[in-house]
Amino acid sequence: MIAQCACGFTELDDETLVDHLQLAFEPADRTGSDGSVHEELDRLSCLCGFAAITGDDLDQHFLSVFAPADAMGRDGRKHEPAEDACVA
Ligand SMILES: [Zn+2]
Ligand SMILES: [Zn+2]
């Protein structure tokens, strides 16, 4: 399975799609859409009090608070997982 982003990014060995999305959306002040600051405290917990079960959980948490509704990244491009190759 090859994960791709709407911007054309394709998942690499050392950079997953989630890493890429986090990079695209993460604000410099790390303040999420809920107005709280989100920062990884240790491997599985966030400064806001969120406790993840797995590292993926924590990644998803960051994405859910940092990703804007229109999926526009800080670089002005749209970033969202391209689910299937049915985009003509
Ligand atoms: Zn958080
Ligand atoms: Zn992208």
Order of adjacent strands in the largest pleated sheet = 1-4
The biggest sheet amounts to:
2 strands, antiparallel
Assembly category: single chain
H and E order: EHEEHE
Beta-strand proportion: 5-15%
- How many structural domains are formed by the residues? 1
Q: Overall pLDDT, averaged?
A: 91
Uncertain stretches:
none
Bound molecules: zinc ion
Overall, the morphology is globular
Report the radius of gyration as a whole number of Å. Answer: 13 Å
Q: Terminal Cα separation, in Å?
A: 19 Å
Number of strands: 4
What portion of residues is helical? 10-25%
Overall SS class = alpha+beta
Total number of helices: 2
Describe the structure.
This protein has helices spanning 17-25, 55-66, and strands spanning 4-5, 40-42, 45-46, 81-82. α1 (17-25) packs parallel to α2 (55-66). The chain has one domain (4-82). The protein is built from 2 helices and 4 strands, in the order βαββαβ. It is globular. The model has no long low-confidence stretch (mean pLDDT 91). It is of the alpha+beta class. The structure holds zinc ion (2 copies). One zinc ion (ZN) binds next to α1.
Please sum up the structure shown:
The protein has 88 residues and is of the alpha+beta class. It contains 2 helices and 4 strands, in the order βαββαβ.
Index terms:
single chain, 88 residues, alpha+beta, binds zinc ion
